[in-house]
Amino acid sequence: MLEKEDGLCQWPAQAVSYFTTYRVDGYEGGVVPAGPPVRIGHYEDTFRRVGDGNWLLASRTLHLPFGGPTPRANMPASQGS
């Protein structure tokens, strides 16, 4: 780690965050029925440190190797269990 005279790191920090999205549009019943994920991917983030010592998001790259349309429920609320 390279530090400046004020003791703050001048190198950017990096993070990788993984996500899985489950979603159904149009469902009006109680608990949404289980289904496969709609999107799976990860973000690669870079942060930079500013003068007051806080870290700010400098860049974000989305990697979406699996993504499809959002399923739509065709069941009216009156038919939900």
TrEMBL record:
Name by which UniProt lists this protein: SnoaL-like domain-containing protein
Annotated source species: Streptomyces paradoxus
